[in-house]
């Protein structure tokens, strides 16, 4: 499973050295790099993107987390501002979908003092020592969080709940008195809207997962050609792990999609 890493540096020059470290470790097969970006905190406490993640499916996750970092940490140092606002709730939803906790971002915020610069990246690594050692040598402090896919299971559970609720409402409607049918019909209509909205999100999530997996596999297949010995074996193991994880996640999302169709029937 891949991880997000957040490496803070005292200045921009060191941060760009950090991007070179990641590129070299990828070339060596010590890790697999899927995307990275550079952000900085200015004297006013605002986060600014210095280097964007690459475009396309491979850069979606890092691009999204950069947006989340700016949204969550763009205010006073160490403070998550506007937690009750609609924009904040949107950021939290996006980050949850990526498998990133706000606790991780709050921890990272303590390192992002004005003038500091950070490299954000998504990687797969077998050991943390190669990255930690080289980043420490140039003044970088590494923070990690594993990407989780709890949202996939939650989506399946939500659809199962919708399916059960719809079945109960329709059963009640069939046996209801005439004066109660209008109220139940309205409840069914509201639930249908919720199911359709959830189905749209689910379809988008499934497509994003497919696109992201395909892009990662392509990057790993290129990497394995240029690797040798143990490094090549590690990359091959990451390919197998990625495929297995994609199959598992795809099965969960397809289960959720099947429940959606049943609930809407």
Can you walk me through this structure?
A five-stranded antiparallel sheet has the order 3-2-4-1-5, with helices on both faces. The protein has 265 residues and is an alpha+beta fold. It has two domains: 3-148, no CATH class; 151-264, no CATH class. It has helices at 12-28, 57-73, 86-98, 102-109, 129-137, 150-175, 178-225, 229-264, and strands at residues 3-9, 31-41, 47-51, 117-125, 141-146. The chain contains eight helices and five strands, in the order E-H-E-E-H-H-H-E-H-E-H-H-H. The two termini are 36 Å apart. The protein is 66% helix and 14% strand. The protein is elongated. Residues 75-92 have low confidence and may be disordered.
Provide keyphrases for this structure.
66% helix; alpha+beta; 8 helices; 265 residues; elongated; 2 domains
Give a topology summary.
Elements: E1 3-9, H1 12-28, E2 31-41, E3 47-51, H2 57-73, H3 86-98, H4 102-109, E4 117-125, H5 129-137, E5 141-146, H6 150-175, H7 178-225, H8 229-264
Antiparallel strand pairs: 1-4, 1-5, 2-3, 2-4
Helix pairs in contact: 1-5, 2-3, 2-7, 6-7, 6-8, 7-8
Q: Strand fraction band?
A: 5-15%
The general outline is: elongated
**H/E element sequence:** EHEEHHHEHEHHH
Overall pLDDT: 80
- β-strand number: 5
Profile the largest sheet. 5 strands, antiparallel
- Structural class comes to alpha+beta
Relative helix content: 55-70%
- What separation lies between the terminal Cα atoms? 36 Å
Strand order of the largest sheet: 3-2-4-1-5
Segments where pLDDT lies below 50 for 5+ residues?
75-92
Tally of helical runs:
8
